[in-house]
Amino acid sequence: MRESTLFTRARKESPKDEVSLNAKLLTRAGFVEKLMAGVYSFLPLGTRVMRNIERIIREEMNAIGGQEIVMPALEPRANWETTKRWDTYDTLFRFTSHYTKTDYVLGPTHEEIVVPLLQHQNLSYKDFPVYVYQIQTKFRDEARAKSGLLRGREFVMKDLYSFHLDEADLDAYYERVKEAYIRIFKRAGIGDRTHVTLAAGGTFAKYSHEFQMVTDAGEDTVYLCPKCGTGINKEIAGDAPTCPACGGTALKEERAIEVGNIFKLKTKYSAPFGFTVKAEDGKAKEVMMGCYGIGLNRLMGAVVEARNDERGIIWPAEVAPFDVHLLLIGDDAKVAKQAEEWYRKLTEAGVEVLYDDRQASPGEKFAEADLMGIPWRAVVSEKTAKGKKLEAKRRDEETSRLVAVKELVELCCTKKSSA
Known about the structure:
419 residues, BirA Bifunctional Protein, domain 2, 5-stranded mixed beta sheet, 11 helices
């Protein structure tokens, strides 16, 4: 993509109404634009990041047998009354149709929809287990939305639901999802600081699990066990936290952002709908469930909170909007022709390139490249063009190197495959 065609512009100043670092950097760099508290538009660069996050999640969900669907965001009141959550779900957006006078919900989650959906498929015991997921917009009437992309009123979520005929099967799949989540966060560039954390299981099980990314910007308090690596959410830790896994007591208190969660629902939502299946012995068997969520907006914001410096964002390779930020420096026609040729060669080699072909000063181009945080910066100038080289530098390193186009392609591929 030629940067001269982007309708968005980087900004020198942070928006005055933003408190969180992720919102400040993403807005300044031209990734998002706030419409109102908790609601953001995703601009071309931000959309590319979101699509990469989707791709990672989709690949990992498909790898564990997930079948992708898309359920409606508009949900009927009756389903929420069936589960007795119409009056108890405290962030529910409710409204009444002007024409039918029927009450509806803007979906914050989809247990009330996915259970009858599966129930209507006339499944036999031979069809189980079943795993379905979607990547879809959700709506929650949050009391406060001051953390940028970390807490929104409208956001995109991946929710996976699994259906089983016995608890052992649910337990086994739950562990598969846990491992898939670990892979997702590693690929997103935050695996080194994301911990599987024990949390309250509600009425479903003794524990659920959260995936907490340690950062000073976190809204949650967790305790990490240095002995076995287990994390414990403050809500279950108590006044004198002890590790439930190994009994260790030297736990370290940390601030963290929840970037994912998994629950064993068992029959919490299938029972109200009477979702049963005739087993092999002819008897009706209750269907058990698990649910597994990742907020994509939140994950994007968390990556920015974790990976930045005083100059801007540092995107990990797999979620970055582009592989290379190619900067043309100067106005020499021969240099510009060389930059065009290398832009074409990189693109033909499968490298995703943002080509800064604008008429702007070198200082402005360098500053905006650092702010945007694309993994590799490659400079074409009169000096480099004479040697048929590009001056390449990784965003997370200080030193640059002179490389041929072929070498830059290899560097990009190596970095992305090891991300």
